Amino acid sequence: MIRSKKLHKYYEGEVRVHALRGVDLSIDKGEMVAIMGPSGCGKTTLLNCLSGLDDISKGKVWLNGKDLNSLTDNQKTEMRALNMGFVFQFYNLLPVLTAVENVELPLLLAGKSKKAREKAEKALDLVGLDHRYDHRPSALSGGERQRVTIARAVVNEPDIIWADEPTGDLDTKTSDKIMDILCKLNGKNGHTMVLVTHEDRVADRAERVLHMESGVIKRDQVKEG
Ligand SMILES: Nc1ncnc2c1ncn2[C@@H]1O[C@H](COP(=O)(O)OP(=O)(O)O)[C@@H](O)[C@H]1O
Ligand SMILES: [Mg+2]
After folding, report:
1. Average pLDDT score, the chain
2. N or C: which end of the chain has fewer CB within 10 A?
3. Ligand 1 pocket member 11 (CB < 6 A)
């Protein structure tokens, strides 16, 4: 369902950065995969390139059998809106909207306004925020905000959820709770989950860990059990 072949990414600027140096990977439907590695090794770049958020420089990426290079920007945007959910730190919640309005937004943007409010409330229930529908982000704790972000990512029932350091700013206990929710979604609803982290504690929860170093995958670790 997610495949890359000889994927390279350069950032052109005053100095050219070769951020991905030939990434080959294949992730099946329903897998929960953690991408690990030190800061600057290319994890975020890889997520952006695989999800079509950023253009790739060389090589190929296929999503659900579709070659990303063959899609227009509009087609990629549509694919993201319909089939993907994002838990990214820079994908912030809109401060003027309440929790339930933030979660509802992807449905409205995807033109699925029928029962949008009901679905948004269900998604918030799923992450244990049934008592926080009408709170604005500023009135929520960091962990609660991250749970709203997860509800927003799953409200569309996407095939793939991309998470970049989803527990980055959270204390251990809250981080464990967020991981419980993500694991549950993966197990119960079968969402394919690709999760970037630099924390062992978080990667421990995944069935498979791709270890990155300097723009390549050094080790593909599949756990037993
Ligand atoms: N927009 C950008 N322009 C130039 N260089 C970038 C950009 N984004 C990331 N980089 C560089 O690419 C490399 C990989 O970055 P990144 O994917 O963010 O790493 P990670 O998420 O593993 O910390 C780093 O050397 C970083 O400085
Ligand atoms: Mg990063």
Report:
1. 93
2. C
3. yes
Q: Summarize pLDDT for 106-146 with one digit per residue, the tens.
A: 999 888 899 999 999 999 998 999 999 999 999 999 899 99
End-to-end CA distance of the chain: 22
| Residue 156 in contact with ligand 1 by CB distance below 6 A | no
Residue nearest to atom 6 of ligand 1 (CA): 11
Q: Strands, E, within the chain: which ranges? A: 2-11, 17-27, 32-36, 58-63, 66-67, 84-87, 160-164, 192-197, 208-213, 216-222
Q: What is the pTM of this model?
A: 0.93
Pocket test for ligand 1, best of 14, 21, 36, 44 (most atoms within 8 A of CB): 44
| Residue identifier of the C-alpha nearest atom 4 of ligand 1 | 11
Structural domains in the chain (count):
1
Q: What CATH code is carried by the domain that includes residue 83?
A: 3.40.50.300
Q: Which two tokens stand for residue 30?
A: 């329903």
Structure tokens at 168: 């980055």
Rounded Cα–Cα distance for residues 105 and 83 (Å): 15
193: β partners: 32, 161
Owning domain of residue 103: 2-222
For 50, 85, 127, 130, the CA distances from 151, given in Å and listed in that order, are 22, 9, 7, 11
Q: Is the CB of 9 under 6 A from ligand 1?
A: no
b (16+ CB within 10 A) / e for 11-23: eeeeeeeebbbeb
**Distance from C-alpha of 221 to C-alpha of 211, rounded to nearest angstrom:** 8
